[in-house]
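Please fill in the sequence for the structure shown.

STRUCTURE ENCODING:
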C-alpha cells in the first residue's frame, strides 16, 4: 500500500488519538492537529494527500478549513466529520470538493474503507489527468509538426533549388553560399527538434527563469541520374508553395507534372488522364478527404497505380493500410529534393508482377 500522508484535524484529544491509531493500521503516515489555524500553517509547510477534519471547531470551522485546503492544493482529498447531521452542510461540503462526509460517532472500519476509497479516487483522477495531459501534448505536437513541416519542406527544397540554379548559371558567391548553408542547417535543426518532440512518450517539465516551464527534449544524400520520361506525375497537395516546389524539383529532372489542389480534383484528373499519368504523389492529410479513402479511389480506377504517400505525421494505421494495400513509398515531411527524387526513382523502377 502507498504511504499516504494524512492530516487529522479535531479539537477533541481522544478523537484525534483514536483516528490516528485506526489509520496507522493501514500504514498511513498521520499528523495530528487540534485546530484549523494550525492545520493551515502545517499545510503550507508540508504536502499531504488527505485532510480528515471535524466540522465544528473553535476558530476556523471545518467548512472554512475545507475552502482553504482547496485554495492551497485542489488535489488534496478531504473527508469531513461531524456529529451534527445536516443536508445543507453535506451539500456545501461536496460543492467545495470534499471527497466524503461522515457522521460521528465514527465507525473505524467504515472510516478505513472511506479513506481507502478516497485514495483510489485520487489515484484515478491523477491517472485521468495524466492521460488528458498526454493526449493534449500529443495532439499539440501532431498539429505543430503538420503545420510546420509544410513550409519547412518548401524551405529545404528551395535551398536545393537555389543551389542548382547557381550551379547551372556558374555563379560563385561565397557569402550567398554561406547563407544557404545556414538556412539548410537551421531547417534541418528544426526538423530534428520536431522529430525529437514526436518521440517523447512521457513529457518531463522543468523550470526555467521568469517562472516559465519547458518540456525536456532529449541524413546523407546520394545523387543519382534520372532518365527523361514522357509520362506525367500527378501531385495532389493542398499547400500551394509545396505544390510549386515539388513541381520545380521534378521538372528540373525532366519529369512532366500535373498539379491538383484537392482530393476530388486529383481523382478527376486521374480518371481523365490515367493513361498518361505514371505515378502520383499524394498528400495523405488533405483537408477535403481522408487519405486512405483517396488512395482507395485511385486504386479503384487503376489497381496498378503507383502512389507515393507524403505526410507531416508519422506512419499511422491508415498509412500502414495504404502501404499494405499497394502504395509504394512513404515520404515524411519535411522532405528535401533528394528524398522525393529517390522515392520517384524507386516508383519508376517498380514493375508489378503479372
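FILLED IN BY: designer on duty
SEQUENCE:
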Amino acid at each position: 500500500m502507498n504511504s499516504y500522508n494524512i492530516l487529522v484535524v479535531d479539537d477533541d484529544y481522544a478523537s484525534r488519538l483514536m483516528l490516528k491509531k485506526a489509520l496507522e493500521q493501514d500504514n498511513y503516515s498521520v499528523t495530528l492537529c487540534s485546530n484549523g489555524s494550525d492545520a493551515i500553517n502545517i499545510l503550507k509547510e508540508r504536502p499531504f494527500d488527505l485532510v480528515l477534519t471535524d466540522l465544528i471547531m473553535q476558530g476556523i470551522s471545518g467548512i472554512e478549513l475545507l475552502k482553504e485546503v482547496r485554495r492551497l492544493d485542489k488535489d488534496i482529498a478531504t473527508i469531513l466529520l461531524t456529529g451534527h447531521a445536516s443536508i445543507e452542510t453535506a451539500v456545501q461540503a461536496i460543492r467545495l470538493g470534499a471527497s466524503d462526509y461522515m457522521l460521528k460517532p465514527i465507525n473505524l472500519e467504515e472510516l478505513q474503507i472511506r479513506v481507502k476509497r478516497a485514495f483510489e479516487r485520487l489515484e484515478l483522477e491523477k491517472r485521468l489527468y495524466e492521460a488528458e495531459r498526454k493526449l493534449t501534448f500529443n495532439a499539440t505536437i501532431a498539429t505543430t509538426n503538420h503545420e510546420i513541416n509544410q513550409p519547412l519542406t518548401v524551405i529545404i527544397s528551395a535551398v536545393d533549388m537555389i543551389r542548382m540554379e547557381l550551379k547551372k548559371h556558374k555563379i560563385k558567391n561565397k557569402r550567398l553560399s554561406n547563407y544557404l548553408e545556414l538556412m539548410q542547417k537551421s531547417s534541418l535543426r528544426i526538423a530534428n527538434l520536431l522529430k525529437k518532440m514526436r518521440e517523447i512518450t512521457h513529457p518531463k517539465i522543468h523550470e526555467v527563469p521568469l517562472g516559465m516551464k519547458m518540456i525536456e527534449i532529449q541524413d546523407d544524400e546520394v545523387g543519382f541520374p534520372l532518365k527523361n520520361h514522357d509520362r506525367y506525375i500527378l501531385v495532389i497537395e493542398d499547400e500551394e508553395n509545396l505544390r510549386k516546389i515539388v513541381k520545380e524539383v521534378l521538372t528540373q529532372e525532366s519529369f512532366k507534372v500535373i498539379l491538383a489542389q484537392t482530393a476530388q480534383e486529383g481523382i478527376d484528373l486521374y480518371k481523365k488522364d490515367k493513361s498518361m499519368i505514371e505515378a502520383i504523389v499524394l498528400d495523405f492529410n488533405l483537408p477535403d478527404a481522408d487519405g486512405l479513402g483517396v488512395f482507395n479511389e485511385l486504386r479503384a480506377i487503376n489497381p496498378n497505380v503507383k502512389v507515393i504517400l507524403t505526410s507531416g505525421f508519422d506512419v499511422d494505421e491508415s498509412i500502414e493500410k495504404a502501404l499494405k494495400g499497394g502504395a509504394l513509398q512513404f515520404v515524411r515531411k519535411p522532405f528535401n529534393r533528394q528524398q522525393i527524387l529517390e522515392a520517384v526513382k524507386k516508383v519508376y523502377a517498380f514493375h508489378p508482377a503479372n
